[in-house]
Amino acid sequence: MLALATVLILSYLIGSIPSSLWAGKIYKSIDIRDYGSGNAGATNTFRVLGWKAGVIVLLFDFSKGLLCTAVISQIAYAIGSGPVYPGAWDLDSFLKISCGIFAVAGHMFPVYASFNGGKGAATAAGMLYGIEPISISIAIVVFITIILSTRYVSLGTICSVAIYPISQFVLIGYFEMSIDTSVVIFTSILAVAIIAKHHGNIRRLLNGTENRISSFKPAKGKINEDKHPA
Predict the structure, then answer these.
(1) CA atoms of 100 and 102, how far apart (whole Å)
(2) 97 DSSP 8-state letter
(3) Where does 40-90 have alpha helices with state H?
(4) Is 137:128 a contact under the CB 8 Å cutoff?
(5) Burial of 202 (0-12, 13-18, 19+ CB in 10 A)
(6) SS3 for 160?
(7) Confidence class of residue 228 from pLDDT cuts 50, 70 and 90?
(8) Which whole number is the average pLDDT over 111-127?
(9) DSSP letter, residue 18
(10) Given 34, 96, 155, 178, which residue has the most CB atoms within 10 angstroms?
(11) 21, 40 contact by CB (below 8 A)
């Protein structure tokens, strides 16, 4: 129990690191939650601070999930007599998924930022990359393609999250890849949860009012004037 508790707490604390808030303070001396959509994530960072800050935040948040899944989870093996876990699961899959969940939870509800964080997509992507890299690589290609073609970060996120579990089913069914069943079930549930978290973005996309990244430059007007979530 000590081993599992240790890695889960570490994962949550790493996930809680508020990269977008740091970027807002460093680039413009602002709290990014007061501008654009009001969200403390990579999407709003792109919108408010521009592509350079957005890419940095995106990679940082991605790395949080990857670190917790690939590295922090393995610390459990070196602590005590070993982690307690449901016997029906593969131990390594259980540890990676559990640490990944806590990293995403930390990003969404960060202890360092009054539990007001981002939507978890980038951190979830890093976590999933640490669990099974082929499917998430496909999803990342979809994400980049949609952003470059439409300039909607939210649409790219939603589509890439949706394609991830679908690609796993394809890899298992047509290419006979061995992917643990618990991973497929978990990623499917996670995809639904992240898409549900973007319900506001989906509504704005349907209404034609969602903000685009029009020039990949900082939205100066938003920083100077818009302090209300869109």
Answers:
(1) 5
(2) H
(3) 42-49, 51-70
(4) no
(5) middle
(6) helix
(7) very low
(8) 89
(9) -
(10) 96
(11) yes
SS3 state at 218: coil
Q: What is the DSSP letter of 39?
A: -
d(CA 10, CA 5): 9
What does the pLDDT read at residue 176? 87
Type of residue numbered 158 = I
Q: Which CA distances in Å does 41 have to 112, 132, 147, 182?
A: 14, 24, 16, 28
Q: Which two tokens stand for residue 135?
A: 């499917």
Token output for 160:
């890439």
| End-to-end C-alpha distance for the chain, whole angstroms | 44
Place of tokens 């004037």: 225
Tokens, residue 122? 């980038």
| Cα–Cα nearest to 127, from 56, 60, 64, 190 | 64
Q: Please choose, from the candidates 58, 63, 34, the residue with its C-alpha nearest in 3D space to the C-alpha of residue 48.
A: 34
Interval 204-223: pLDDT, tens: 999 998 877 755 555 555 44
